[in-house]
């Protein structure tokens, strides 16, 4: 695997901030109180994890769609079909209550990592892709799991 470009790494890490914030407001009562008083309940704990987790899972479908544009023939059809799975997963599976949604998101991100690996393996994703996606996904899944503990 090649080294991850700095801009992709910085933006990827910045994308973790809402996940880390959500987990932090679950783990730290003072941070929870601050968020409740200053930001409102949507921006704390399990709620921000659900909202942002759903948005990013759908966003990642768009990333995979972009990779699919490099494919040709039957391979393109497969790649385009696979690329929409994370967004459809988020649409159909998230929304069954806060805890059930978190479980669905964790499963969605695990599945997304498998799709990332597939697109990388067939050379549609950049050579550095898995070097970025594995650690980001690990942090996301850990953050999502915090409210379930």
TrEMBL record:
Annotated InterPro entries: DUF3429
Record protein name field: Uncharacterized protein DUF3429
Transmembrane segments: 46-67, 74-94, 100-120, 132-148
Domain of life where this protein originates: Bacteria
Lineage: Bacteria, Pseudomonadati, Pseudomonadota, Alphaproteobacteria, Rhodobacterales
Pfam families hit by this protein: DUF3429
Keywords: Membrane, Transmembrane, Transmembrane helix
The keyword Cytoplasm belongs to this UniProt entry's keyword annotation: no
């Amino acid at each position: 695997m090649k080294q991850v470009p700095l801009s992709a790494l910085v933006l990827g890490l910045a994308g973790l901030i809402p996940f880390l914030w959500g987990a932090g407001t679950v783990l730290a009562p003072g941070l929870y109180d601050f968020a409740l008083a200053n930001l409102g309940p949507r921006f704390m704990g399990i709620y921000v994890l659900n909202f942002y987790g759903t948005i990013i899972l759908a966003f990642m479908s768009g990333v995979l769609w972009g990779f699919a544009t490099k494919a040709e023939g039957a391979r393109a059809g497969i790649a385009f079909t696979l690329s929409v799975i994370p967004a459809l997963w988020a649409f159909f599976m998230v929304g069954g209550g806060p805890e059930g949604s978190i479980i669905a998101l964790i499963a969605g991100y695990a599945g997304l990592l498998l799709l990332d690996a597939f697109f990388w393996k067939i050379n549609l994703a950049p050579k550095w892709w898995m070097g970025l996606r594995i650690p980001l996904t690990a942090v996301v899944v850990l953050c999502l799991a915090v409210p379930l503990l």
